[in-house]
UniProtKB/TrEMBL annotation:
This is Peptide methionine sulfoxide reductase MsrA. Keywords: Oxidoreductase. The gene is msrA. It comes from Sulfurovum sp. enrichment culture clone C5. Has an important function as a repair enzyme for proteins that have been inactivated by oxidation. Catalyzes the reversible oxidation-reduction of methionine sulfoxide in proteins to methionine. One of its GO terms (molecular function) is peptide-methionine (S)-S-oxide reductase activity. It catalyses: L-methionyl-[protein] + [thioredoxin]-disulfide + H2O = L-methionyl-(S)-S-oxide-[protein] + [thioredoxin]-dithiol; [thioredoxin]-disulfide + L-methionine + H2O = L-methionine (S)-S-oxide + [thioredoxin]-dithiol. Belongs to the MsrA Met sulfoxide reductase family. Pfam families: PMSR (PF01625). NCBIfam families: msrA (TIGR00401). Its EC number is 1.8.4.11. Residues 5-155 form the Peptide methionine sulphoxide reductase MsrA domain.
């Protein structure tokens, strides 16, 4: 089986990229934009021109090593899925908690995990959308923390499952 892709947004894509890139079976993580109403948006467009895009990461993974379910669980543990309209100090539509699913199986997995979180007392704000076009962010956003020697300021791992 060849590589597969998954798309998650949970605040600034820098932190999401940082955490997902450390997982065994993840071959690549690309920061980008999804969900808006224009083609090839720039960071400036997304932040200041109300394009409706959301900062997301595209995860290319080997399903023989890591499953979509494992990625999804991790997604819910590296950001706060209960925060509405942002993540940590990053506030705005472009920072919402969101999953873009490519098929019914992915949607079923996400809904099951959200139900489990809600049953454990979490008021999950994560939105689920069908797959939309992905636009790669500018090069200076790619591998940001690794290139700059920093660590994420609004993401951290918190065991929830």
């Amino acid at each position: 089986m060849s590589s597969k892709e998954a798309y998650f947004g949970g605040g600034c894509f820098w932190g999401m990229e940082y955490f997902f890139s450390k997982l065994d079976g993840v071959e690549d993580v690309v920061s980008g934009y999804m969900g808006g109403n224009s083609v090839n948006p720039t960071y400036k467009d997304v932040c200041y021109n109300n394009t409706g895009h959301i900062e997301v990461v595209k995860i290319v993974y080997n399903p023989k090593i890591i499953t979509y379910s494992d990625l999804a669980k991790y997604f819910f543990e590296i950001h706060d899925p209960t925060q509405i309209n942002g993540q940590g100090p990053d506030i705005g539509h472009q920072y919402i908690s969101v999953v873009f699913t490519s098929d019914e199986q992915e949607k079923k997995i996400i809904n099951k995990l959200i139900k489990e979180l809600k049953n454990n007392g979490f008021e999950v704000a994560t939105k689920i959308f069908d797959l939309m076009p992905f636009y790669k962010a500018e090069d200076y956003h790619q591998n940001y923390y690794n290139k700059n020697g920093h660590i994420p300021y609004c993401h951290k791992y918190t065991k929830r499952f």
